[in-house]
Design goal:
- By secondary structure, the chain is mainly beta.
- It has one helix and twelve strands; from the N terminus they run ββββαββββββββ.
- The strands form three sheets. Strands 5, 6, 7, 8, 9 and 10 form a six-stranded antiparallel sheet that branches. A four-stranded antiparallel sheet has the order 1-2-3-4, with helices on one face. A two-stranded antiparallel ribbon has the order 11-12.
- It has one helix at residues 47-53; strands at residues 2-4, 14-20, 23-30, 37-43, 59-60, 65-66, 70-80, 83-93, 99-101, 104-109, 111-114, 117-120.
Amino acid sequence: MHTLIWNDSTIPHQIALENEGQHTRIEMRVVKDVEPEVVCLSVDWSVETLIDAWQGAALPISTAYDDGTLYSQVRVLFNLDNGCVIWLVNHIKMPCGNKISTDRLAWVPSMHGKDGQLVAV
């Protein structure tokens, strides 16, 4: 398993890549106040290709929504030849004040994140 490094050392989330034969498993551990959420996605790219595509940051492609209780935004983690991997960020502040994560990773074919939006490849 290979752990990616964020450009921002204050980001506690961890992204690890693991070879699964002809696929690579992307595992993201989202750290909030409540037990970390682990979200995974299997893609048809090699670990090396994903490492080369990693820019050390998640690129926002939507405006952040934040009403104090719910934070939501879509970000691109990897732009690849024929699509991109997006991270759907959803953090909820509980009545006790702790934050939990309800995130997801997804593959978007034929699109890239560029200049803050999704564009056709």
